[in-house]
Design brief:
heterodimer, A: 108 residues, mainly beta, 6-stranded mixed β-sheet, 5-stranded antiparallel β-sheet, 11 strands, 0% helix, B: 112 residues, 4-stranded antiparallel β-sheet
């Protein structure tokens, strides 16, 4: 199956800082999503982005499918951005694969 | 437009009992994934269901675990004779073919 690697595994920021999270995948994908799991455990959809670039407020994402990676940008981070960010991909099969996530802590 | 619903949100069982977890997909969605998440880990695929069909159950343990998605009503993940190692958060996600998946709030199972 497809391998998904996320980096960095852990990230600590001061409020207001910017960050870039990376998701590498081992094969071509039909579907890629970014999720935020908040400290209460809920999974929140951020982006559905199999290719191209999207922006939503302070967050944006870019997927370069030909080079098998996706980036999630967080600008002007806030304490409410804390949590774990997951990348999930769907390749030729219909079985989704999640990365291990990036754990983000934003200090006030 | 209601999102994905799961119940119960928290479930406590003693070893040997049965656990039944329910998932109602978003309106218009006929596909469901079930996942298991252990503490400090990512989500692991368990089973892919369509209405009245199990499409792929390769991620589900062969024994004690079963899943269904009947024509009417929610999808059910059933764990028989639970053991302590079954303690985890169980999430379902619904979607339409080829589109993005949306998650329910999860069921946190604790086995005493």
């Amino acid at each position: 199956g497809i391998q998904v690697e996320q980096s960095p595994p852990d990230l600590i920021l001061q409020e207001g800082a910017n960050s870039t999270l990376r998701c590498n995948f081992s094969d071509s994908v039909n579907n890629l999503q970014w999720f935020h799991q908040n400290p209460w455990g809920q999974l929140i959809n951020l982006f559905y982005i199999p290719s191209g670039t999207k922006q939503n407020g302070r967050l944006s994402a870019t997927t370069v499918a030909t080079e098998r990676y996706s980036l999630l940008y967080i600008s002007s981070s806030q304490t409410t951005d804390s949590g774990v960010y997951f990348c999930a991909v769907l390749g030729g099969s219909y079985i989704p694969t999640f990365g291990r996530g990036t754990s983000l802590i934003v200090h006030p | 437009n209601a999102g994905v619903m799961q119940n119960p949100r928290h479930l406590v069982r003693r070893r040997g009992q049965e656990a039944r977890l329910r998932c109602s997909p978003m309106k218009g969605h006929s596909h469901v994934y079930w996942y298991r998440q252990l503490p400090e880990e990512g989500l692991k695929f368990m089973v892919y269901l369509q209405k009245e069909n199990i499409i792929d159950e390769s991620g589900m343990p062969k024994e004690r675990f079963s899943a269904e998605f009947p024509k009417e009503g929610p999808s059910i993940l059933r764990i028989q004779q639970v053991v302590r190692g079954d303690s985890a958060a169980y999430f379902c996600a619904s979607f339409t073919t080829g589109n993005e998946q949306f998650f329910g709030p999860g069921t946190r199972l604790t086995v005493l």
